[in-house]
Each structure stands twice: as C-alpha cells, then as structure tokens.
Protein 1
Amino acid sequence: MNLSPILAMNLVLLVVTALLIVADRLLVSYGKCRITVSEGDQKKEFEVQGGSPLLGHLSEHGVGISSSCGGRGTCGYCKVRVAEGGGQILPTEELFMSRQEKAEGMRLACQLKVKNDLTIVIPDYLSVVRAMAVAKKFDPNKRWKVTIY
Ligand code: FES
C-alpha cells in the first residue's frame, strides 16, 4: 500500500488548517463584546475583546465554571445556557448534549468563541458541583452526566 498520497493529503489539510487559524487570528476582529451572566438571582455584566473562548472570559471575571480538561472540549463539564448570541452549536459540543439541552441552548463554554454580545445563564447544578469541590467531595476523575429538566 502506497502511503504517500495519504500523507500528501494530510499535509495539505494541515497547511490549510494552519492558514485558516492564522487568518482568523490576524484578519478577523470581533471587537468589544458584552457578556451578561445570570446565576440564580444575581446578574453580572462585563466587556471583553471578542475572538477567544467564553470559558476564559468567565474565569477572568470570577464566574466559576467546572472544567477538568483544561478547555480542550473533552470533559463536558463546562455547560452553560446561552440565552442570546450563541449561534449554532458546534459538532464538538453535540457529543455532550442531550436533545433537550440542545433545545435549551446549552453550550460548552470552552468551545464557544465570543463573537458578539452574549447572555449566559449558569445552571443551578454548577453550584452543587462547586460546593462539592469546596468540601473536597468532588471526584474530577469520575465521568459526570448531568441532565437538566
Ligand atoms: S472544559 Fe472540558 S469540555 Fe469544556
């Protein structure tokens, strides 16, 4: 079996992907975006420079979101409900979402790139997980599946 056409095609795909990433970073400016976060009866608003994932912005502004994969999109813990401005769910997020969660606008904060103003609702179960982590009863090695009704 001759591998050189497969290697050549993979190399072309790698170069195209790298060019798209560089073009996105250098040529596209999303400007300032306003993020509104509701958690329980509390509301927080802040402005960020668009173009990077929501998870980092939330953490920079003191909004704690569960995460055990460092934002690589592999744990599925960082679910937030996007009430406005989220756009279409990405294929990388669909693996972690039930049909109902998709219908409710749930997204993975680490996969959602901020491109415009967003309104975010932090699900109640996150406060339960946060309390478990503070009490050191949270096992990050466990696979968690949370369904919101
Ligand atoms: S932080 Fe792990 S999936 Fe988002």
Protein 2
Amino acid sequence: MKWLEEQRDPNHPHICTIERIVDETPTVRTLYFHDPVLADVKPGQFAMVWIPGVNELPMSVMVSDVGGEAALTVRKRGESSTALYNLNVGDKIGVRGPYGNSFEIKDGQILLIGGGTGLVPLMRLIKFANPSNHITVLMGSQTKNEVFFEEIAKKLLLNKESETEHKIITVTEDGSYGEKGYVTDVLEKLLEEITYDAIYTCGPELMMYKTVEMANKKGIFVQASLERMMKCGIGICGSCCVNDDLACRDGTIFDGDHLSKKSEFGHYHRTKSGILEGI
Ligand SMILES: Cc1cc2nc3c(=O)[nH]c(=O)nc-3n(C[C@H](O)[C@H](O)[C@H](O)COP(=O)(O)OP(=O)(O)OC[C@H]3O[C@@H](n4cnc5c(N)ncnc54)[C@H](O)[C@@H]3O)c2cc1C
Ligand code: FES
C-alpha cells in the first residue's frame, strides 16, 4: 500500500470518499476523508479539490487526529464552495497536490494570526511547531456564531512540549465573544509589550497586509499565506499572479520584506477572467 502512495502522481486527481462531516459554524464545515498523502502535508501547503460536475478549487489541508485522515474546512460562499459544502458522507471528490511551499518555523516566541478559513494552515503550523516555541494564537471572526477551531487549537497546544503556557486570544468584530474589534487591533497592543521572534498570518488580505506592515516596522520576521484565483495550481495559467510572482508556484507563503515590495499585495487580485480588481 505504501509503495502505491509513493507512486502517486501529485498532478492527477486522486479520488477520495468523504467519511465524516463536522459542522464548525452555520456556514463552515469540515469534510474528513482517508488520504495518507494529504494527511502528511507541510503547514501551508494546499490541494486542488475537484468537485465533480462543478469546478476545481484550491483549498488548504486541515489537520485530523486520526492517522492517514485528511480534511478540508470549507466556508459556504459562491457556487463552487457551496457545492463542496453541500456534499454528503459517501460522496466523492478528487484531490491534486500537495502544492506550494510551507511556513518557515522559527524558534522562540511566535504569534499566529488568522481569520475565517485562513485558520486552517495555522492549525497545521501549531502541529509542526518546535518544542522551543511559545505560541500565541490570535483568532478573528465577525461574531460569536462564526468562531471555530478554538477547541482544536487548545487540543493541539496541549499536545506541545513547552515550559511555558501557550495562549489563545479570540477576537470578534462585534464583541459578542472574546475581545472586541479586529485581530489587528489586538496585535497592535501585543506588539507594544512583546517582541515576537516570528509572526505567521493567513486570512483576509487586508488583515494580512496590516499584520505584515506592523511586523516589518518592528523588524519582526513575518510570513503570510496568500489566496488567489487558481486554475492550474502548478505555475502554468498565471491566474494567481501577485505582480511577477505566482502564488501557487512561488508561494503561497511569502516573507514580509518580499511582500512589502509587491504593489498588488493588499490592493489588487485577479478575477476569474484575469482582470485586475481592487481588494
Ligand atoms: C491556497 C488557497 C487555499 C484556500 N483554502 C481555503 C479553505 O481552506 N477553505 C475555504 O473555504 N476556502 C479556501 N480558499 C478559497 C477557495 O478556493 C475559494 O476561493 C472560495 O471558496 C470561494 O469560492 P466560490 O465558489 O464561493 O467562489 P465565488 O466567490 O462564487 O467565485 C465565482 C467563481 O469563481 C471561481 N473561483 C472562486 N475562487 C476561486 C479560486 N480561488 N480559484 C479558482 N477558481 C475560483 C469558481 O468558479 C467560482 O464558482 C483557498 C484559496 C486558496 C488560493
Ligand atoms: S494557478 Fe495557474 S499559475 Fe498559479
């Protein structure tokens, strides 16, 4: 069986059957399926997910505590994500990959800041973090109903060897749960008191833009995972470009000092037809 996995061509869709589904919020759910290759991806890597008869979408790979099991956490938005969200146990999807680079995990005090499904690669980052890391997780959402992964983050942090306690800070825009405001407001306050060794971010691009700006100003190592329209996922079609970088091939993770030279980061992305559009 193992040699079969080793022989697997990452560029051909591998057909998987959804085995269980967990509702995270009224609009977000996690689909679990057996796939030893995706179960083992590095933090930050993604897969191209084929929803038969509908489309193929790039998706981060969620952790599972079951060996050999991979997962996708999907928010119901437009046509394709809703079709993925609406799949049932027993339905099939195709997965290509894993693709993309991974977070470079530094030693010492690290901060993970994310919002919505941007938290998916950050959960895997916790799993891969070093024993030397003291980890703070800043989780943002609009309102209490949309908070998810808090329990998973707690569990992952509990499993880490560490001499100090890790920290989870939940932030909602309307203040219905945790701290009130934007995650970046809380980050700004934290940066006045603590000098982190590294910051990692994934989520809405404006949040990542502010995070990168703040970290760069303080000279803190920062990496952001960019989401773009992706058609091929393998550096051919150009739909995922950020200036002259291709998010699928050169990222999706980029260092903050590199991003600070990219005029499109935080300002523009490309639509399905390739038109540059404001974020
Ligand atoms: C690396 C990466 C990881 C991601 N991880 C997650 C995740 O873990 N969970 C999650 O919910 N979302 C994730 N996304 C976003 C996801 O791929 C879709 O963009 C999002 O679900 C919106 O899809 P939609 O069908 O609702 O699109 P709409 O907003 O309805 O867009 C219209 C149409 O455009 C096309 N389209 C939209 N987005 C993309 C895209 N990124 N690439 C190719 N075609 C697209 C589809 O045909 C879609 O029907 C990720 C994106 C990237 C690039
Ligand atoms: S998605 Fe085609 S080049 Fe990146």
